[in-house]
Amino acid sequence: MIEWLLFPGEFSADLPRRLVKVWRGTSLVSVLRLPDARVVTVIEPRELRALREPRWPDVLSDWADIHEEPIFPSPLLPVAGEALSETGPDVLCMFADPTEPERVRGGIAWYEKGRLRELEQVGRAAVAWQKGEPLGRPRVSDLRSQLFSFGRKLADSRRDADMFQRADNARAVTAEAVVARALTKLLNTEPPALPDLAAALERGGRAKLTV
Questions:
Q1: In the 8-state DSSP scheme, what is residue 172?
Q2: Contacts of residue 95, Cβ cutoff 8 Å, sequence gap at least 6
């Protein structure tokens, strides 16, 4: 399972002071520097616990109860997104589970000024929500050039057609497409596949952060 908390810019000394309000434990911090991309700080939970539950809009809480589908794997990323975005830039929370190719799960949540602004998640069911809008399903119309898999590019048109058919018949859109769109927006460039991003973080070095 990949769980990343991402936001534009370099690591700031006041991050621990804000995270200590919602986390106890250890995480890893790195700075992602890709060619022609925005510099992004990435925080990866390790041995952590959340001090409280996230503040989900009622419609999302109701959706989770009806579909018996949790929103995000744990409260760790959402509560940190709330805390870090209160006085800083917009924060992206992202998770992806490529361990079961036939049942890939993933989702993103954007936080602005301490509040959830947008959420997209794909699992057994799919949901999309934006502030001030009713629940929907993740969009597919603007994703064709951005689609990427967890381990390979989807290059030929037949594969693309198969993916869209699978999305139409099952979960409306794949988890990797949801993640790709959010990363494109944050990085200001089309992202590489997730294994390549993880490798870039490894090469750049990680620091331990304890709160």
A1: S
A2: 1, 2, 3, 4, 72, 73, 77, 105, 106, 107
